[in-house]
Design goal:
Structural class: alpha/beta
Number of helices: 10
CATH topology of the largest domain: Purple Acid Phosphatase, chain A, domain 2
Helix content: 25-40%
Strand order of the largest sheet: 3-4-5
CATH superfamily of the largest domain: Metallo-dependent phosphatases
CATH architecture of the largest domain: 4-Layer Sandwich
Number of strands: 7
Radius of gyration: 24 Å
Low-confidence stretches: 211-253
């Protein structure tokens, strides 16, 4: 593997270079994925099993050797590290996903919408379990605000005060200074559990003032009961046929 980097070293002579090894959407895949009958852990490369943290560790080690002489290496994760397999059921108690990321040498991770599936207090419990075990990467939440006076946010607030959750991270490695931040995307915020319902489009809001109707965004994780609470209920007469096709579904009941 070392020989692979030699031509690159020659090409980058006199320049500062670095490598980022990146993971995302690991979704609690602690072990590989394949039919159990195909899995042969004692021997290598003779089954169809793919993925899992052990394979990631091997690949990271390989890439570090391959990029030797090409500057520092950063290992970063982009979130959604939890939810997706049965292991996720114990994430609050074990923080296993974060602990394994730390064992991989991950410098920092961030939070995706699936990392809030068990609620913000569940997220805090998972991070706290990893902290207690002494194995946790820095969690970056640059544009996520936990400051509201809500009981379910106290755990995240405490972790923020401890520096376990940060807005940014500066790493100096190999003569280079890196600034790292983690951003939760707009759609991820909408599709997180307990997220506030997004506003109805203006056209629908105008019609909602005249007819009883509501909208539940596709893939939304907030309950239909929340949507019902925002429905206008001023009139219940049938809609003209020419308008039926342009309206959201009618509230049940």
């Amino acid at each position: 593997m070392t020989a692979m980097s030699e031509p690159l070293v020659a090409q980058t002579k006199g320049k500062k270079t670095f490598t980022i090894l990146h993971t995302n959407d690991l979704h609690s895949n602690l072990i590989g994925m394949a039919p159990a009958s195909d899995f042969t852990p004692v021997t290598l490369n003779d089954d169809n099993t793919r993925g899992g943290f052990a394979r990631l560790a091997t690949k990271i080690a390989e890439r570090k050797v391959a990029t030797a002489g090409l500057g520092p290496v950063l290992i970063l994760d982009a979130g959604d590290f939890s939810m997706g397999t049965a292991f996720a059921a114990a994430t609050r108690e074990t923080g296993a996903e974060l602990r394994l990321l730390a064992m991989l040498g991950c410098d920092a991770t961030t939070l995706g919408n699936h990392d809030f599936t068990l609620g913000p207090d569940g997220t805090a419990a998972a991070i706290g379990a990893a902290v207690e075990a002494g194995q946790v990467p820095v969690v970056l939440a640059t544009n996520t605000d936990f400051s509201a006076p809500a009981p379910t946010l106290t755990g995240l607030q405490r972790l923020g005060a401890q520096g376990r959750i940060r807005s940014y991270l500066v790493i100096e490695r190999g003569g280079i200074r890196f600034g790292i931040f983690g951003v939760l995307g707009r759609e991820a915020a909408i599709y997180s559990v307990n997220a506030a319902p997004p506003p109805l489009p203006i056209r629908w809001r105008r019609l909602a003032r005249r007819w009883r109707c509501c909208a539940i965004p596709k893939k939304s994780m907030w309950s239909s009961r929340s949507a019902m609470a925002g429905c206008a209920r001023t009139r219940t007469e049938p809609l003209p046929k020419e308008r039926m096709s342009s309206l959201p579904p009618k509230c049940p009941g």
